[in-house]
Specification:
The chain is an all-alpha fold. It has 13 helices and two strands. Among the domains are: 149 residues, Four Helix Bundle (Hemerythrin (Met), subunit A) (Up-down Bundle), CATH 1.20.120; 136 residues. The protein has a two-stranded parallel ribbon. The longest helix has 85 residues. The radius of gyration is 55 Å and the shape is elongated. The chain starts with a helix and ends in a 5-residue tail after the last strand.
């Protein structure tokens, strides 16, 4: 496995690009985390730190046993010796804090670094105050201790740098793992969405083909004997409906001169001023004369004639109304017009039944076409939304792939190319 070999080589060779499948990423990250060399580098720093602690301990011992010159002024001698005790105590405490921990994990290393750094800061504070007095008595000892402290400071800086590298590596690995896990969920959903779109596109093509076939079938049916017969019947129906409309207009024209008289008769009947035999007929004659039976028409006209003088009509109006009633009774005009309307109504019913009988196939084709159009519209809307979702999901996945490649390259120390299609 080339990528694993690169780990032990310290990264990819110059100009060489590693390639990983998405399924290899987790194991690649685990290996990179396990074989990052952090523990080995800590060992090297801790080894230096142990040597520095031994050197510092020896120099502290030399400082404690050193003797001041006999010519030292008493006041300076007292101050220097007192300061030496304080400095030695703090330096001994620092030596204890420098002892390397047994574990080599980041948390333990961080705690050890923090403890040693705080110890060095306290030492520097104490040493800074007392150094002038101690140095005046034991300059060579103080020079060696200063050299020890400088070396310890450099080692703590090195240790901090290693922890920063490890922390940065751990962060990169954590983010890379999150991205990898996300992509392993996103990519199958993308494939499912693509497959759904493919199936819906195939279904849409089938529906459009079916609609085209139905349109062809409708054309053939319209040219068939049955289709031509249906066309003739529909034209006949239009003529009959026109004639029926004319018959209704004729009825309305025959009733119109009686409208005021009929309206007053209806009011008289509802107020019980007059006892009417055809009480409900007058209102129906006004609104829908075609629905009034022949015997009701003749009876109501006779009754209207007999009560006309009691309706309060002006003489001229009453005279014209009476003439019209007499004409209707004599010629049976309303009955004939209604009979004509009823005959047309029956013919229309028969024609419609005949149309329905020879239009079964046409109706089926029309219903199937309507259903196909509805399904096409619904599927097109669904495809439009799915396409938008696919574009958005692809952009998101592409961005995540690019970020993952960048983080893998940061971890590897060389370019890493991600191949999410390869199983590994």
């Amino acid at each position: 496995m080339k990528w694993l070999n690169n780990i032990f080589k310290g990264g990819s060779a110059h100009g060489e690009r590693s390639s990983l499948s998405l399924k290899e990423v987790d194991s690649w990250l685990q290996q990179h985390e396990d074989f990052s060399g952090f523990a080995e580098r800590l060992d090297r720093i801790y080894s230096r730190m142990e040597k520095a602690a031994v050197s510092l301990s020896r120099d502290i011992s030399d400082l404690n046993s050193a003797q001041p010159e006999g010519s030292t002024p008493p006041k300076l001698l007292r101050a220097g010796l007192a300061a030496r005790g304080e400095v030695a105590k703090q330096l001994d405490s620092l030596c204890e804090k420098l002892e390397p921990p047994h574990k080599r994990d980041p948390d333990t290393a961080f705690q050890h670094h923090w403890t040693a750094l705080k110890g060095l800061e306290r030492t520097a504070t104490t040493f800074g105050r007392a150094q002038r007095y101690v140095a005046a008595l034991f300059p060579k000892n103080i020079e060696r201790i200063n050299s020890d402290l400088a070396e310890i400071s450099r080692m703590l800086v090195d240790l901090e740098q290693e922890m920063k590298k490890k922390r940065k590596l751990s962060e990169e690995i954590w983010y890379a793992r999150q991205l990898s896990e996300g992509l392993q969920k996103e990519l199958p959903r993308l494939e499912q969405l693509q497959e759904s779109i493919r199936q819906n596109e195939a279904g849409l093509a089938d529906l459009k083909s079916r609609l085209s076939n139905l349109e062809d079938e409708a054309g053939r049916h319209s040219r068939s004997d049955e289709g031509r017969r249906a066309g003739e019947l529909k034209r006949e129906l239009e003529r009959e409906l026109t004639m029926k409309s004319q018959a209704e207009e004729e009825l309305a024209e025959l009733v119109s001169p009686l409208s005021k008289a009929l309206s007053r008769m209806a009011k008289q009947g509802s107020s019980s001023r007059i006892s009417l035999e055809h009480d409900g007929v007058f209102q129906r004659l006004l609104k829908s004369p075609a629905e009034v039976e022949d015997e009701e028409i003749s009876g109501s006209l006779v009754e209207l004639q007999s009560h006309l003088s009691r309706l309060g009509l002006k003489d001229k109006k009453k005279e014209k109304t009476l003439e019209h009633i007499e004409m209707l009774i004599k010629n049976r005009s309303l009955e004939k017009a209604r009979s004509n309307w009823a005959a047309l109504e029956r013919e229309i019913l028969k024609t419609r039944e005949a149309i329905a009988e020879c239009s079964l196939e046409e109706v089926r084709i029309r219903q199937d076409s309507a259903q196909a159009k509805k399904s096409i519209k619904s599927l097109e809307s669904s495809l439009e939304q799915q396409t938008k979702d696919l574009i958005s999901s692809r952009e998101k996945a592409t961005a995540h792939e690019k970020e993952l490649e960048e983080r893998l390259s940061n971890i590897s120390g060389g370019p890493v190319q991600l191949d999410p299609r390869r199983e590994g």
